[in-house]
Each structure stands twice: as C-alpha cells, then as structure tokens.
Amino acid sequence: MTIAQHLRSPRLQALLLLITFGCIAWVLSRQWAEVERAARSIEVKWGWIIAASVLVLLTYAMLIQSWRMLLRGWGGTLPYAKAAQIWTVANLGRYIPGKLWSVGALGVLAAREGVSGVAAAGAAVLGTVLNLGAGFGVAAIFGADLLDAISPGLSRVSIVAGLLFVVAVALLPAVLPLLLRRVARWRGMAAAERQLSKRDLWTAAVINTGSWLGYGLAFACFARGVTPVISASAPLFIAVFAASYLVGFLVLFAPGGIGFREVALSALLVAGGAAGQGDAALLGATSRVWLTVLEILPGIIGLFCMSPQERGTLRSPQASSPPLH
After folding, report:
1. 234-250 vs 117-142: helix axis angle to the nearest 10?
2. Chain centroid to CA 306: how far?
3. Distance between CA atoms of 319 and 6, rounded to whole angstroms?
4. Which pTM was predicted?
5. Could you tell me if 104 and 322 are in contact, meaning their C-beta atoms sit under 8 angstroms apart?
6. What pLDDT shows up at residue 261?
7. 258-267 pLDDT, tens digit each
8. Which of 75-89, 149-163, 242-256 has the lowest mean pLDDT?
9. By CB atoms within 10 Å of each CB, which of 54, 117, 143, 281 scores lowest?
10. Using CA atoms, how far apart are residues 50 and 75, in angstroms rounded to an integer?
11. Residue scoring higher pLDDT (132 or 148)
12. pLDDT tops 70 at residue 282
C-alpha cells in the first residue's frame, strides 16, 4: 500500500484529525485567559471586513483567469463563467483530507467541457505548482525581517527562495514539454498539440504572485476590522498569511489546513511583534471562519448551478485523485 493510500484510510484520517484537534485544544487552554481578554476588546468594523472580502473575491477572479490562460496555452478554451464555476467547485476539495481532490476535480470537470485530458491535467497541476512556488517566494521575501526575528540570518534564505522561483519559471518552457510528452506516453494519452508560451508562463507566475499579495492585504483589512489592537505593516501581514496558509496546505491530512494554519498564523504574529498571544489566537480563529465562508459559499453556488450529470462526475473515482497519477 502506498503512502497516498494510507493517508486516504478513513481510520487514519480520523486519528490524525483527533490528534490535531487535541493539540489545538491544549494550545488554546494554555492561552485561554488571554484569548478571553482579547475577545472582550473586539470591535467589529464591517466596512473593513467587507473590503477584505471583496479583495479575496477579486483574488479568486485573478486565479481563475490564470488557470484559463494555462488551459488556452495547451489548446483548451473555457468561457470565464464556466471556468469560474469549475474552479470554485473544485476549490471545495481543500476540505477533503489529502489535498488531491481539488486538482483532480479541475481536470475532470474541464475535460467534460471538451478540453483535452493533457491540457486539463497539465493546467491543474501546473497552476498548483506555480501558486505554491509564488507563495513560498512571497512569504520569504516579504517576511525577511520576520525570519530574522525568529532566527538571525534566515533573511538570506528569503533571497535564495525568491531567486529559485524565478529560475524555475525561466526553465519551465524547456523542461515542461519533455515532461508532458513522457507523462502522455506513460498514461497512453495523446500528446498536447500546443505548448505553453513563455509569455503565458510568466503571466501566470505574475498573477499567482499577485494573488498572495491580494490575500495578504485582505488579511490586513480583516485584522483591522476585528482586532484593531493588532498593528503591523502590510508586508508583515502578507508574509504571515502566506506562510501560515502554506503550512496548512502542506499538512495533507488536515482538511483546509485547519488548526495548523491558525497555530502558525498566531505564532508568526507574536514572533513579528504584531500581537500578543490572545489577540493573535483570536484573529486566527475568526479569520478561519471568514475565509471558510468565502471558500465554501462560491463552491456551493457553483454546485447548485451544475447539472446532475456534472455532479455525478464529482462522485466518480477519477475525481478523487490527481489526473497525472
């Protein structure tokens, strides 16, 4: 049995989630007095929260366009409305342990619209890789001071991380066609008729980098609307959000990175001197609720607008694993 199959075991997932929630409860119990004090000082400012939500939705719109560009680069076309529906529905997959359903659903639903399997699979996987790479670069560069606060000298790592992302994108036009041809032969699929241009790759990389800036600024607005006592510069909010989000993503068994993202976010805010433990923990918990609503609601609307046949596709085994596996 492979590692991926072990991770999909319901018993193992339940055990890991139980351990996760146990750790979260233990951490909160140690900070409960501070969290309770911070909760009494909450001053909800809906204008800032609405502005934060609009920024998140605009960031989603950017990422959807980036995915459409990658599809078009391989000869697949989707109207923006259909691409938005597929993307938001597939986005629900982050709440399924394993983080794999989302990528698989993008490929399967796009293929139902006449996009080739290679284009759908390649765009889904490449989009995820670009987003992760951009996230690490943004977290490292914008969080250079935060890294030095955690351990002197770590800011140098930020420079290396940013350069590695740029170099990787520069090499993709030469490496990607060879990789895709091998994968197509391995899976018995027809090779893509077209290849992504350098312009498409760089544009997608820029959009994905901009998406992390959008998320970070939205997080800063949300913090202003919930816990005005937390004070930090925009770069720190950007770095903290990106780093904590990536921590949650990389913990494969935690749906949506629940728990791990909040613990990382709180720890980074405290390390950066932006908040005390109580205020940071409170912001982590409230931002989780806020982002969950913004992630789930568009997907539910997208599911509601799908035909029964399309919803049936999502229940098929193909949609439960990445199209390139």
Report:
1. 130
2. 24
3. 18
4. 0.78
5. yes
6. 81
7. 667 877 888 8
8. 149-163
9. 54
10. 38
11. 132
12. yes
Half-sphere exposure (Cβ direction) of 270: Cα atoms closer than 13 Å: 17
Q: What letter represents residue 272's amino acid?
A: G
- Confidence at residue 6, expressed as pLDDT on a 0 to 100 scale: 41
- 94, 106 in Cβ contact below 8 A? no
Residues composing the chain: 325
Residue that has been written with the tokens 């996760």 in this structure? 20
- Contact between 127 and 103 under an 8 Å Cβ cutoff? The reply is no
The mean pLDDT value of the chain amounts to 75
Phi-psi region of 153 (alpha: psi -120 to 50; beta: other; left: phi over 0): left
- C-alpha distances (whole Å) from 41 to each of 51, 64, 97, 207, 286 are 21, 38, 35, 37, 14
Taking the C-alpha atoms of residue 233 and residue 238, their distance in angstroms, rounded to an integer, is 9
Q: What is the DSSP letter of 100?
A: -
The two tokens of residue 89 are 């529905």
Alpha helices (H) along the chain: 3-7, 10-40, 46-73, 80-90, 101-112, 117-142, 144-150, 155-187, 198-226, 234-250, 260-271, 277-305, 308-314
* CA neighbours closer than 13 Å in the CB half-sphere of residue 59: 22
Mean pLDDT of 163-191: 71
- Residue 108 structure tokens: 């399967």
* pLDDT score at 7: 40
Q: How far is Cα 199 from Cα 313, in angstroms, rounded to an integer?
A: 33
Please state, in angstroms and rounded to a whole number, the distance separating the CA atoms of residues 157 and 239.
14
Chain CA centroid to CA 226, Å: 23
Distance CA 10, CA 26 (A): 24
d(CA 91, CA 88): 5
